[in-house]
Amino acid sequence: MELFLVAYEARGLLVSVGLAVYLVYKVWVYRRLSAFKGPFSSGWSETWNSATTVSNNAHVKHKEVCDKYGPISRIGPNDLITDSMELVTHMSAARSPYTRTVWFARATRTKPGEDHLFSETNESVHTRRRQQMALGYSGKENLELEGTIDVYIGKLIHLIRSKYLSTPELAQPFDFGKKVQYLAVDVINAIGLGVPLGDLDTDSDQYRYIETTEVGFKIGKMALALGLLPVIQSPWVMRLLAPLGEDGLRFGWPLRHARARIDERLQQETETRSDMLASFVRHGLTRDQLVNESMLQLIAGSDTTSTSIRALFLYLLTHRRVYATLQAEVDAAVADGTAPPAPGVISEAGARSLPYLQACIKEGMRIRPPAGALVPKRVPDGGDTVLMDGKPVFLSGGTNIGVSMFALQLNKGIFGDDAEEFRPERWLVEKDEKKLATMHRVHELIFGYGKYQCLGKSIALMEVNKAVFELVRNFDMSLARPDKPWEEENSLGVFTQRNMLVTAIDRLGDVKS
């Protein structure tokens, strides 16, 4: 009691001391990264960072910071952002001492306390997991990969042709973005779990899978911005947010679906099977690891692939010269036998042999990267010195450095003064071999680099190549609402693009697809 009375009587002094300590700490925090400029208040508080994370266009705001303040800019008391190719590759190199930041990586967990490849921050565990999964993703132990993708490309073409064709007498706009996402969801479920959800067959978001994952990203975005991640990631809160109801329609359904399918497959023989799940089992993944990695596949794989296709078609349909040039190349490939007659699907090798198609895909992904998260890395203890424009720059240990992929891919110093314009020819007419090599190297960073490169890269590109070719071969498409081509939202770097209304006119006539 006496101690309480003494503290009460000295309350003014204690408050003053506490305030002084707080101010000294804030000054120290500010000065620690004061060499880097950024938005007002970014050196003192998380206000700008949090407001940007909550917004629907964080990727745009991050690019604006890089454009205004330079290749390394400040966006928070302990947070920097960069659009430097050299720094990005330095941080992610195979032997780099930089690591993933715990606060961001754990925001991507699908189960409290359990990590998948993207959320894992222990470097040795992460390296081991990549080794266990690499062959399954590469297709070397998944011999049915390309054939499976062909099946669902065919289903997409059939769905459009059977239900949504427009004619001179009647326009039938449909949500192209939604149909493309049905494709991506069915493909990733088929190759990852061995069975599709049936979105293309039913022309619907089966079990509200897409809807519930979008809700999950919104919750994660708010939790990260408001500093509530430890609360959201606690098991009892997660049970409230993601109940596994018997109706199979609530937020936890995707996890429940993956667990059930994996349990079924674990009862089957895996030594001679040639699919992704069997490969993971053969290389030592446990049941819980399989569930967590499958959730990463289903969410990250379907969203980024569908975003890539939607974004490319947004630019194709608003650049008719490019669309016509690509369509001419596609028709020539069909005529010379590079692609089989419809309803056959072009092979991956055939698609990769078409220079203009490849230029369009590169340019679409460059001008609209499929993921908009900063994915920050932590500077190793003791700090690090890097070169920027030939000058040494010291980075304090423990600092978080995120990457603005939009700023990097739209960098005028790399891609020219028209970097913000959609021009596929830039990949074909560039005469400076050194500059072209740099362009290709920067483009590759869309899929990560070094120890953090996306294992699903080859699968995503195969699907994009085939889908773009076959859609252009089969249909003449137009934006039905060019004044409002889509509604877009960025949640933790994952894009939701709704109401991309398109009309499609059949180019091939009576084709049995």
Automatic annotation (TrEMBL):
This is Cytochrome P450. It comes from the Eukaryota. The lineage of its organism: Eukaryota, Fungi, Dikarya, Ascomycota, Pezizomycotina.
